[in-house]
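Input record (one chain):
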Amino acid sequence: MFSVHAIDNPSFESEMELLKQYGPDVDPVALEKIAHAFGDLRLMADEGTINYPYSTREAVNIVKHLQVNRFLAQPGLIEPLYFL
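The corresponding structure, as predicted from the sequence alone:
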């Protein structure tokens, strides 16, 4: 048998702490923009504006990518993520 368990998304503060652990060298402003963008995407999913409920896993994957490719985290290059 399978059992379903709903887990709430983390608070902004908790998500920021998690993202900092995965991207210690990523600009904190970029991390904040990612966390805010994903918060907005989740709200849009809750409201039915979009169908896919973006999770912290996707935010972490972006931060891990930026950690490895730090040149992408330069100011001006993270803004397109806000328009996902």
